[in-house]
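User: For a benchmark we're assembling, each entry needs the component sequences followed by a predicted structure for the full assembly. Here are entry 17's components. Please fill in the structure.
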Amino acid sequence: MSTACKDLVDPKQIKLDEIINKHKNENGPLIPILQGAQEVYGYLPAHVIKHISKGIRIPVARIYGVVTFYAQFRLTPVGRNLINICLGTACHVRGGAKVVETIEKELKIKDGATTEDGRFTLEVVACIGACGLAPVISINNEVHGRLSPDKIAGILAKYE
Ligand code: FES
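Assistant: Structure for entry 17:
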C-alpha cells in the first residue's frame, strides 16, 4: 500500500479499529466498544454501528437494541454546548422542575434533544454533586447554581 493511500485513512476509524481489536475477544465486548466509539465520535453514527457489527459479528439490529436501551448512548451528535440540568432530590425540592421548564421553553427543545443550530444539547440528569447550590445546571461541566427562572436567559447568552 502506498503512503498516499494510508493518508486517506480516517484517524477516528483507526482508533475505532483499535477499540474493536482490544475488546473483541473479551466476554461481552459490545458495551466497552460502544463506549469507546462514542468517546471517539461524540455519538454513535450509523456507519460506526455497521462497522462494529462487522468487527464483532453481532447483527446491527441487536446493537441498536442495546444502544437504545442504555441512556448513556447517543445516536445523534451533541451540540456545541451540553447543558446538564439536575433533577436530583435537592435540586428537585428547590425548584429544579421550573428550571427544566424554563430552559426547554427558552431553547424550544425537550430533554435529550439538540437545538436546530447545533448550539445546545439538553440533558436532565441526577445529582451532579453540587447539592449545596441547588437548583443547579452545568454547561460544558461549568456549574451554575442557586438558579431561578429569571437567571436562565442571561446564563445561556454566554454560550455561543
Ligand atoms: S441534587 Fe442537584 S446537585 Fe445534587
